[in-house]
Design brief:
By secondary structure, this protein is α+β, with helices and mostly antiparallel strands. It folds into 3 domains: about 1-85, no CATH class; about 90-220, 2-Layer Sandwich (Tetrahydropterin Synthase, Chain A), CATH 3.30.479; about 230-320, no CATH class. About 50% of the residues lie in helices and about 15% in strands. It has 11 helices and 10 strands. It has helices spanning about 1-25, 30-45, 155-160, 165-180, 190-195, 195-210, 230-250, 255-265, 270-275, 280-295, 310-320; strands at about 45-50, 55-60, 65-70, 70-75, 80-85, 90-95, 115-120, 140, 145-150, 215-220. Helix 7 packs parallel to helix 10 (about 280-295). The protein starts with a helix and ends with a helix.
């Protein structure tokens, strides 16, 4: 802050010299009056007001000198710049607020963001309590983290980050990297049970990695996973099909009857499936419905390696029918 004091001292000395030029009865007194008028105008332009809801730093000829308190101050125009940021608390959904999230296919409109989509891992055989949970499967889910933070040091924030928009991009990248590792080891069903724990771990990570950014992370939360109506219907359909198949085996329903039901199922909803096939989520719905049929009648579905999530032959057959093939 010594540099700022030198600037103020120089400004005062310059003012005194101008005043002396005015009061000395010489031929240059008129010039002195003009200079004084310009000096006063310059002083007015140099007066800066920092509101109570702002936090600011002083930049002298490109060098950030330190934070300044709210109030009135003189920052010589052209020499000293005052850079301010909101002092208020931010509660940001990443990568942007809900109205700014573009979840459809195609080019992203200006000012909008893709949702954070994370691929979850396979079920853990040891999670016995989740065996019948329809979401205890490997799938891609939109994850919405919420970070509560504020700027605590304007100088560090200006030097290391520069803007709030840039900070949000960096935080989103860090969150995606963290989620990509963490959620790859569990299903959405398992993650949903420990969201509070995962949120606390994310908070600790962000506090540690942003300690020199001039911000304070107060809290982090992960919103409960939100699945579309079609996604819910398809996922639950797989679970129901598992139970129905088990029931059919236990009650001794014949293969011919199961095949008849399969044919009826194939004749329903193809138009709707065709519309869904144009979106990423729609493709996944078709994928799940293929699995549903696989569970309903394993004798008539191709499941390579016994892995239901590799049933590409069944998917290809269904997509061929949707596209008008025989």
């Amino acid at each position: 802050m010594k540099a700022i004091s030198k600037v103020y001292t120089t400004l005062v000395i310059l003012g005194i010299i101008i005043i002396l030029l005015i009061i000395i009865p010489t031929k240059i007194s008129h010039i002195g009056i003009i200079i004084l008028a310009l000096y006063i105008a310059y002083l007015i332009l140099s007066i800066k007001i920092i509101n109570a809801d702002k936090i600011a730093t002083i930049v002298l000829l490109g060098r950030a000198l330190g934070d300044v308190e709210s109030g009135v101050m003189i920052a010589p125009a052209g020499i000293v710049k005052v850079v301010s940021f909101p002092r208020t608390i931010f509660n940001d959904e990443l990568p942007g607020n809900p109205e700014l999230i573009f979840g459809e296919e195609g080019k992203i409109p200006d000012g909008m963001f893709r949702p954070i989509r994370i691929k979850f891992g396979n079920p853990d055989p040891l999670d016995i309590d989740l065996i019948n949970d329809p979401y205890n499967v490997c799938m891609v889910v939109d994850v919405v983290p919420v970070v509560n933070w504020r700027i605590s040091n304007a100088t560090l924030f200006f030097v290391n980050i520069g803007s709030i928009e840039k900070l949000r991009v960096i935080l989103s990248d860090k969150v995606v990297a963290d989620f990509g590792v963490k959620f790859s080891t569990m299903t959405p069903a398992k993650a949903g049970k420990i969201l509070d724990q995962i949120s606390d771990e994310l908070k600790t990570k962000l506090i540690t990695e942003t300690i020199e950014w001039g911000i304070k992370v107060n809290n982090t939360d992960i919103k409960p996973f939100n699945f579309s109506h079609h996604m819910n219907t398809a996922v639950v359909g797989v679970s129901v099909a598992k139970l129905n198949k088990k029931s059919a085996i236990e009650t001794g329903i014949g293969a011919a009857e199961v095949k008849r039901l399969m044919i009826e199922a194939e004749a329903v909803g193809m138009t709707k499936l065709g519309k869904l096939a144009k979106t990423e989520q729609g493709k996944y719905v078709i994928y799940l419905q293929t699995l549903q049929k696989a569970f309903e009648n394993a004798d008539y579905s191709i499941i390579p390696g016994g892995d239901l999530f590799s049933a590409f032959a069944g998917i290809k057959e269904m997509l061929t029918k949707i596209n008008g093939g025989k």
